Amino acid sequence: DAFSPPALPLSYSAAVMLTSPIPRRTTMIRYLVLAAAVISAPCLASGQIKHVHGEGKINAVIEGGKITLTLELPMDVAVGFERTPKSDKEKTALADAEKTLKNAATLFLPSAAAKCSVSTVHVEIPALNGKNHSDIDTEYVFSCGEPDALKEIETTIFKSFKRLYRLEAQRMGPTGKVTQRLTPKNPILSW
Asked: CA-to-CA distance for 155 and 99, rounded, in angstroms?
């Protein structure tokens, strides 16, 4: 017996997959997979799945004499709220968090022997418009005079943001890709 697909705007390949003459059970499985993809797409696009209070993400890319660090930090970790500041105290907390995050030389300490210095800092505080979850995105670029001496990057971010209990770190560089969990007791990304 025939099973006709729903009238949805699908790509040619999706339409062929759904309308090909195959057993009914396989068609139902394909519909379930397609439905799961459609349902989860808005969550993935909005970042709702990856946002975890108390946990940030940091990526380190080491290329030649340059280190690029990108940090994603939940607003709750930095200031204790994720909405428009309501009081002068909250406005001050937001300004202080931004000031702290702009001080890359204090937050991130590459191996001293690598002779690294901060080249650029970009801190993006989100527009707080009542969304449930907001992240601060930052990018730091360091230039290193002795890149071969670079063996680790220590962070002091846990001292500045007490609500932060871990950073999920990824490092890509000459020795490959490594993932590591940084915590207040283990704040060093090493290789």
From this structure: 16
Tell me, yes or no, if the pTM score tops 0.85: no
Chain segment 18-33, per-residue pLDDT in tens: 444 544 544 444 443 4
pLDDT digit string, tens, across residues 49-61: 466 779 999 999 9
How many Å is the Cα radius of gyration of the chain?
A: 22
Q: What's the CA gap between 109 and 153, in Å, rounded?
A: 5
**Cβ atoms of residues 166 and 183 within 8 Å:** yes
Is the Cα dihedral 121, 179, 167, 106 positive or negative? negative
List phi, psi (to 5°) of 176. 110, -165
Question: Which residues neighbour 10 within 8 Å (Cβ) at sequence distance 6 or greater?
Answer: 18
